Amino acid sequence: MSFTLPELPYSYDALAPYMSRETLEYHHDKHHLAYVNNGNNLLKGTEWEGQSLEEIVKGSFGKNAGLFNNAGQHFNHLHFWNWMKPNGGGAIPGELEKKIVEDLGSVDKMKEDFIQAGVTQFGSGWNWLAVKDGKIVVMKTANGESPLVHGATPILGCDVWEHSYYIDYRNRRPDYLKAFVENLVNWDYVAELYSKAV
Ligand code: MN3
């Protein structure tokens, strides 16, 4: 397969004021597109050509850094656009909420720990909710890595590369993470991924 850039699932203005049109234009049209184009070039002639994106990400990890970085970021961003929606945040679907309370203590504690993981990810990377050994866990990873290459299945991720927040929040990464959790997360999509992961 080759990588293709998807359309955003909402308009460029839809996430304002929490994420601006300008941020989405740079982030989707330039950064994500670069991962797609570089990934396609680096995939050519490798043993992973013709495999699924997840197989390429897992297979190239630790073996082909250039391909992994771009394929990993393509995978992360494909989900990232769907992890947000206009008027996001709010109620978490019942089954998922129950499991979050069971594994992470409470919804408030989950949000606190998720934000803290993003705040403390040194440099570029992502913070996550993932399913590992049947439990929901909070994780953080560097650069283009994700729970996929650490024995877990991602169900929610927030991009804490500066390109994701610097236009709107400058250096205030904690404010960006709080807005992501409270106003942007598409919990229906998280619940859908959770149901597939267990
Ligand atoms: Mn990004």
UniProtKB/TrEMBL annotation:
Domain annotation Manganese/iron superoxide dismutase N-terminal: ranges: 2-84
Top EC class for this record: oxidoreductase
Pfam family, one: Sod_Fe_N
Catalysed conversion reaction: 2 superoxide + 2 H(+) = H2O2 + O2
Known role: Destroys radicals which are normally produced within the cells and which are toxic to biological systems.
Alphabetical list of PANTHER family matching this protein: SUPEROXIDE DISMUTASE, SUPEROXIDE DISMUTASE [FE] 2, CHLOROPLASTIC
Family stated for the protein in its record: Belongs to the iron/manganese superoxide dismutase family.
Name of the featured protein: Superoxide dismutase
